[in-house]
Write a structure and sequence with these properties.
globular; 21 helices; Rossmann fold; 546 residues; alpha/beta; 6-stranded mixed sheet
Length: 546
Amino acid sequence: MNAPVNTTAPVLEVQDLTIALPPGGDRSTAVKNVSFSVGRGETLCLVGESGSGKSVIAQGVMGLLPKTLPVTTGRILLQGEDITHAPLSRLRELRATRMSMIFQEPMTALNPVMTCGDQIDEVLREHTPLSAEERRQKVLSIIGEVLLPEPERMVSSYPHQLSGGQRQRIMIAMALVLDPVLLIADEPTTALDVTTQAQILKLVLDLQQRHGTGVLFITHDLGVVADIANRVAVLRLGDLVEMGPRDEVLKTPQHNYTRMLMASVPTLNTQKRAQDADAPVVLRVKGLVKTYSDKSWFGKHRLVHAAKDVNLEIRRGQTLGIVGESGSGKSTVARCVVRLIDPTAGSVMLGNDEIATLGASALRPLRQRVQIVFQDPYRSLNPRRTVGQALVEGPMNYGLSNDAAQAKARELLGLVRMDVSAMDRYPHQFSGGQRQRICIARALMMEPELLIADEAVSALDVSVQAQVLRLFEEIRERLKIAMLFITHDLRVASQVCDALAVMSEGEVVEYGPAHQVFGNPQHAYTQALFAAAPGKNFAFGTRPGA
């Protein structure tokens, strides 16, 4: 029989927690002497760069740490119960009933061969004596509570049949179906567009207030922190360097590391940028259409208009941003421009060359003129090839000698601020930000006229993101290259874009100079998109000495 729960006490207490790292790493501990608490109905945000120990702490609380990461000192108390070294049987009893976790990527956290209803029902089967009918009603009730449409359809759907936002709502339903006192959310909105993110954050806060749940929210998005946190704890390389009420930490940070993080947050204020009206047009898209035919089991065809009558223009030395929600057509346009997919109709002019209708063999000479940097640097590089081999492959395929390609690779590594010693190392030996720099260098090896960045900084920490954005800007100014920058992060777009195209359901609904679109959005969709930006009205702290 469990002891009575003290509702005035913290739901979670972490006391002097130290978690060791395997021998041979760059440091001996993942987290060192970390202490904090989460009260009932409170949201504590853990922030810090990758490798700071945020997710390790979450895994430690849930009892999900691998044996290679042991808790060496300290305690973890859940409603006063010490669960630091609790047996697996006890942890299984506590998971979902007293503590739950929402993971970053729902597609990997959900079972692809079970319906969403069965996955929520599994929680109830394991932890309650409810009958099958009572469980079904409970499942339908929680589906409705997380504001998913058509609950009957949702319970019979598989994860791949839902959008990213809907899958994340299923994860939230699973986490909250048994009213746990502690909810851990580990980067739950990182992969979501701004409006879906706003909906998920509001949902979590509404459910928290309704159930009185304590929330430990892990994120590197300081705009999100500004919107939802009661208190903020800042981690750096496993050390808790600052903690306090949200406004104190974000507006008047005391530690230099916290100040650096705050100063790295891009603002939504964009200034009018000087434009060369006589610069040659590098890319002109006219009337671009991309239509897919979706055939159902019953033989019916459904046309999906991924892009409808899209018109864009980019001049040399200019950056055009495309923003919009997931499914708005941003990446479809980029893939049509780079000819990874074939347009259904319309014109794509690269300089004076029409490339929309060219066949594969005719496209090859033009490939080097357009290069793309993808979102995930971990999947963009071949893990079996050294950085040097990855850099020289493209130019050598187009006739450059090995010596000349090697010399060019060393030069470009310097341009993206990487040491030439990287040539002999493999991708796994670098951080995410370093890998993205390598991907940028690889794209520039081809001396392209047009560089496409497809969500190229969305997976990076705020400080690394700031470095990569400055790098893009320097490259644009130095090489006078044309850039097509695709992002769902409005703060990022405001910092790097000369012009902005806003897309919704395959159409460009607003288009113009970035300072005009940000300063006075005309379309209702653009206004709603900007209104959903996290922390849009929050004044973050400044740089040290500023």
